[in-house]
UniProtKB/TrEMBL annotation:
<dbReference type="Pfam" id="PF13456">
    <property type="entry name" value="RVT_3"/>
</dbReference>
<feature type="domain" description="RNase H type-1">
    <location>
        <begin position="2"/>
        <end position="70"/>
    </location>
</feature>
<dbReference type="GO" id="GO:0003676">
    <property type="term" value="F:nucleic acid binding"/>
</dbReference>
<dbReference type="GO" id="GO:0004523">
    <property type="term" value="F:RNA-DNA hybrid ribonuclease activity"/>
</dbReference>
<dbReference type="InterPro" id="IPR041588">
    <property type="entry name" value="Integrase_H2C2"/>
</dbReference>
<protein>
    <submittedName>
        <fullName>Uncharacterized protein</fullName>
    </submittedName>
</protein>
<dbReference type="InterPro" id="IPR036397">
    <property type="entry name" value="RNaseH_sf"/>
</dbReference>
<dbReference type="Pfam" id="PF17921">
    <property type="entry name" value="Integrase_H2C2"/>
</dbReference>
<feature type="domain" description="Integrase zinc-binding">
    <location>
        <begin position="123"/>
        <end position="179"/>
    </location>
</feature>
<dbReference type="InterPro" id="IPR002156">
    <property type="entry name" value="RNaseH_domain"/>
</dbReference>
<dbReference type="InterPro" id="IPR012337">
    <property type="entry name" value="RNaseH-like_sf"/>
</dbReference>
């Protein structure tokens, strides 16, 4: 195509490293068909005064590939003219709307972040929301953290939601009256096993207490591990003989 157009010097670009190295002689051509192509190209380039082949990235060679395919489909390029037009797309127009107002919507957020302050209207509205969810028509007096999660699921959210929900549940009078009492001991219990009743006993001495009849102020207590049966005896003094008599 360049020879038909009368070109004497040509600079070509390709995205194939293999073709570039084969033209430069660094790579060896093994296939017979590629050898024929290489000889054909060298024969054409020898008819020119200068020829250079440069490798470029494939992303930069898309237009050249299209032109090469277009040229290869032409039988005689000297009788045809190719017109290339570059269409410039105009950027989309963006309309800017200016909002004017005396109250900045960011001010309540800045007041909370900087001063930890919520407006009175927001506090009153948040209390109404928590009241309706916690003890309204469909309220079930749920716990504080559950109340906060339920409020956020239905679309309500403010910076102190979790804190307010926990405080609301703690201040609810009905929750305090009807909440289940926790009977879990403050210390871990130690399990004691017994195979049958009255096979293993636990004995301890309790006291001293206020002096009772016959100067008794101690208690000797025995508990059966299996049945929890209790035996107790008041004693005035703790001696070996008194313990033996009790047993």
């Amino acid at each position: 195509m360049a020879l038909d157009a009368g070109a004497e010097n040509l600079i070509a670009y390709t995205d194939s490293q293999l073709i570039t190295k084969q033209m430069e002689g660094e790579y060896e051509v093994n296939e017979e068909r590629m050898k024929d192509y290489l000889q054909k190209i060298k024969g054409l380039t020898n008819r020119m005064n200068g020829f250079q082949l440069h490798q470029i990235p494939r992303t930069e060679n898309a237009k050249d590939d299209y032109l090469a395919k277009l040229a290869s489909s032409m039988m005689n390029c000297s009788t045809r003219n190719i017109t290339v037009r570059t269409l410039m797309k105009s950027p989309p127009e963006h309309s800017i709307m200016t909002i004017q107002g005396e109250i900045d919507w960011r001010k309540p957020l800045l007041d909370y972040l900087e001063k930890d302050i919520l407006s009175p209207d927001e506090k009153e509205e948040s209390r109404d929301i928590l009241h309706e969810i916690h003890e309204g028509d469909c309220g079930s007096h749920i716990a504080g953290w559950v109340l906060a999660n339920k409020a956020s699921r239905v679309g309500y959210l403010w910076p102190t939601l979790k804190k307010d929900a926990i405080s609301w549940a703690k201040e609810c009078n009905k929750c305090q009256q009807h909440a289940p009492l926790i009977h879990i001991p403050t210390e871990l219990l130690q399990a004691m096993s017994s195979p049958c009743p009255f096979s293993q006993w636990g004995i301890d001495i309790v006291g001293p207490f206020s002096i009772a009849a016959e100067q008794c102020k101690f208690h000797l207590v025995a508990v059966d591990y299996f049945s929890k049966w209790i035996e107790a005896k008041p004693l005035a003094r703790i001696t070996e003989n008194e313990v033996i008599k009790f047993l």
